[in-house]
């Protein structure tokens, strides 16, 4: 029982990341009809926003300490951060410690801007082209973005810690009446799950309760009619692209402390997120979220030893296996609408 | 009317005889000068540095390349000479190799066996490289070593730790300076006993490819010999990035030690996940839960950040070796000085092994008086040397593996600077990590005979 609860918890945070990326993918697909293979790269850039802010906050100047020696025996160059000099050592250290949550504020404008530039600069030229062309151009873009990040940050993962208060783990088992130390769950993963839930809630509320959201939903259902009513739907869709980029970016920012960001992390998530979108139903936002969590938890269960000893290698194929079964029984996915990609 | 004496048939005949006549001498001269592949003819000799320039181990590759460039500079008489002055063999004098200026070409292995073979092949066939060296993966090393054997050039392996490289996949044209998984196990076991006792239950997470398998086998054998029990060995896909679902079952498995047979980004992520799940604060069977990372590197320690503190593993070399362990490791400081002054930071163990390999090749050619691979093989087999930073070392003839001291290291608790992330716990003498050439973990392969190619 404890192992099952542990794997469900485990699946939730991975599922959160899948759900957030799939949500953005679905938003873009539903509004603009573009299959965006660069979406994983946006997630990765989000994580590197956290890395970048951390680097900015730890920018400093060098003083020479004659009393200490460096590895070559020369006087040691000591690095001092501007933040700690300006705000005092305590507040300065606290600001650096909280760099990941602070990066949310930094990432939103950056990601929206990247989303705008991507959509206006490149992707809009491919609206009337076949899906295959869109996939090729966005996939190429993903590789370009990945290589740019590698050029500036190197190939190795860069550790980016959560704030000190979130570094421990919660003894979840005790809350449920199990023995201590049986079900342990890191605080930051809990934070990530709650954060994902909040973002998903915010996106749904925005689409459901604002006029802007209503127009977008109407545009997703029947673009032509909305256009005939004199509404500039293209401009709104561009804004949605920016929002989708920001959602992926925020998912990346908060993921940085879970796994040290590296330039390749977007690709690792991208393929699975596409499976999530397809399983959830192309164009269905609730489907994407549901399938994200579902597949995250299933993947978690599949890597249990008990399951792996019965079916070796199942952990690597479970998601695709489930996708095949769902598509055979429900060809439009869990919550897919009629008419999407069926013309 | 003029009448030509030339007929079509006559022209063809003359042409054929003429070309055969012109070709004849070159066939003989080519035969006499190139008894082996890519025999250097002019005033220079080309070496091929095949390192990961892209892909997950690109940082290791970059450090390897820095070391090779430094070695070439020193071989050609530039810089401060680095380890040339401390190397026990004194035949290298800074005039290149056998008086030929050393030039190099580079290839990108991408940490993929097929890409590595393709780039090595291109350097041999197009650029005329007489020796290939480098790499940061055992999968790549085994693949490129096979290719070099077929092509008739020498392969001086870079960072490769699988037993198979000088075990079942060993080749006469291939040589490894780096240590291997068996040596890690042999060096770590006594330290693990003194730190954690002989009554432990270990849980292994293992990267699912040749290096992971042989390292797991080696560590399991070494720890079981101490009296430890192996609870479980779980193979994880090389492409995995989030290991939480593999870490979670460890909590309730009854194990009190987690062995991470992971390298590079894999290890950084699995260790981070293990620390997040509170494994290091956990008490199991009345003991503190411990994590062991058998193969360590400075670059990995940097990636893992604070999570690496106090975690034990093994290394081939460390830049602080001579300062902390004495003059037995002479050469270390000379290398750190030339590397540090040129690049601004101390070299990694990948850099040291590659620099040493370049010098060892140049030295073997000089002692043999020929670039012929078979002469080089003969000069390297059974070669005993010192002064390259690892203490007295033997290139064993039976399997072309170097035998030297192995370092047991630990993540520094209070690093004084960013280069001081690893502290040396102990140096295990070479005798303790030496094994018989027919040891079961290395059995099954055949060195064969050297291939000069051409």
Protein model, in words:
The complex is a heterodimer of chains A (343) and B (454). With 343 residues, chain A is mostly helical. Chain A has 15 helices and four strands. The model of chain A has no long low-confidence stretch (mean pLDDT 87). Chain B is of the alpha/beta class. Chain B has two domains: 44-179 and 321-399, 3-Layer(aba) Sandwich (Rossmann fold), CATH 3.40.50.2300; 182-315, Rossmann fold (3-Layer(aba) Sandwich), CATH 3.40.50.2300. Chain B contains 14 helices and 17 strands. Chain B has helices spanning 8-33, 58-75, 113-125, 138-151, 181-196, 210-226, 244-251, 264-276, 298-304, 321-325, 332-343, 349-368, 373-380, 430-433; strands at residues 44-51, 101-108, 131-134, 154-157, 174-176, 201-207, 229-236, 257-261, 283-284, 287-288, 290-295, 312-315, 383-385, 393-395, 402-403, 406-411, 422-428. Chain B has a seven-stranded mixed β-sheet with strand order 7-6-8-11-12-16-17, with helices on both faces. In chain B, strands 2-1-3-4-5 form a five-stranded parallel β-sheet, sandwiched between helices. In chain B, helix 2 (58-75) runs parallel beside helix 12 (349-368), helix 5 (181-196) packs parallel to helix 6 (210-226) and helix 12 crosses helix 13 (373-380). The radius of gyration of chain B is 25 Å and the shape is globular. Chain B starts with 7 loop residues before the first helix and ends in a 21-residue tail after the last helix. At the A-B interface, helix 1 and strand 4 of A face helix 7, helix 8, helix 9 and helix 11 of B.
